[in-house]
């Protein structure tokens, strides 16, 4: 086994990509779950989160509050794109030889995971509250109600995955910032 460089960094280009190790790593599984949950949230709102009753004007199923639908779609798309970005960063992280770049990558991941956890918590509370205030008379034939319930459920699941990812990244950041070598199986962000 070759000695690792500063902050667990290998020599540039010395680490080959192992797809099996990458996709079975817990942090990668959490990122993929977060990616799927984000996609479910924004796709449920976009596909069935709006109804039109007797007019062409679309109304949000969450108490006719367009802000609720907009918030869910915005956070869902942002976390969807963030998950993709950090999956790609995880692939390239073992080949980063610059200590500054490794620190920035881990710090960016830490900040994004914390922000995403907070935004999903706010979204869960906001959407659940707006759904509670929605009267059955506003939704003829319970149109969009399954999508609304799925959106709320997957907002909650997203809180769990992003908090787990935050703790995982935090434990990794302790290794990176303290100068400890990162073991071969846990080299990506």
Please describe the topology of this protein.
Layout: H1 19-23, H2 26-48, E1 50-51, E2 59-60, H3 66-92, H4 99-133, H5 145-178
Antiparallel strand pairs: 1-2
Helix pairs in contact: 2-3, 2-5, 3-4, 4-5
Count structural domains.
Answer: 1
Order of helices and strands: HHEEHHH
What strand line-up does the widest sheet have? 1-2
Instruction: Give unreliable regions as ranges.
Output: 181-185
Continuous helix count:
5
Residue share in helix: 55-70%
Major sheet attributes: 2 strands, antiparallel
C-alpha termini separation: 21 Å
Binned strand content:
under 5%
Oligomer: single chain
Mean pLDDT: 85
- Find the count of extended strands (DSSP E, 2+ residues): 2
Rg from alpha-carbon coordinates: 20 Å
Key traits:
189 residues; 66% helix
Brief overview, please?
With 189 residues, this protein is mostly helical. It contains five helices and two strands, in the order H-H-E-E-H-H-H.
Folded structure, characterized:
Helices cover 66% and strands 2% of the residues. The chain has 189 residues and is mainly alpha-helical. It has one domain. The protein has a two-stranded antiparallel ribbon with strand order 1-2. Strand 1 (50-51) and strand 2 form a beta hairpin. Helix 2 runs antiparallel to helix 5, helix 3 (66-92) packs antiparallel against helix 4 and helix 4 runs antiparallel to helix 5 (145-178). The chain is elongated and about 60 Å long. It starts with 18 loop residues before the first helix and ends in an 11-residue tail after the last helix. The model is unreliable at 181-185 (pLDDT under 50). It is found in: Membrane. One of its GO terms (cellular component) is synaptic vesicle membrane. The chain crosses the membrane at residues 32-51, 71-93, 105-131, 151-170.
């Amino acid at each position: 086994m070759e000695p690792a460089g500063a902050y667990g960094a290998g020599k540039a280009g010395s680490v080959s990509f192992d797809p099996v190790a990458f996709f079975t790593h817990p942090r990668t599984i959490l990122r993929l779950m977060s990616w799927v949950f984000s996609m479910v949230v924004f796709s449920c709102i976009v596909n069935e989160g709006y109804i039109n009753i007797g007019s062409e004007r679309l109304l949000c199923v969450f108490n006719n509050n367009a802000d609720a639908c907009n918030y869910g779609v915005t956070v869902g798309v942002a976390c969807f794109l963030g998950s993709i970005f950090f999956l790609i960063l995880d692939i390239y992280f073992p080949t980063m030889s610059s200590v500054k770049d490794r620190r920035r990558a881990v710090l960016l991941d830490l900040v994004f995971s914390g922000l995403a956890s907070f935004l999903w918590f706010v979204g869960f509370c906001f959407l659940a509250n707006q759904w509670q205030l929605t009267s059955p008379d506003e939704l003829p034939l319970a149109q969009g109600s399954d999508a609304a319930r799925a959106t709320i459920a997957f907002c909650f699941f997203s809180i769990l995955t992003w908090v787990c990812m935050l703790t995982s990244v935090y434990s990794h950041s302790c290794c990176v910032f303290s100068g400890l070598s990162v073991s071969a199986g846990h080299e990506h962000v």
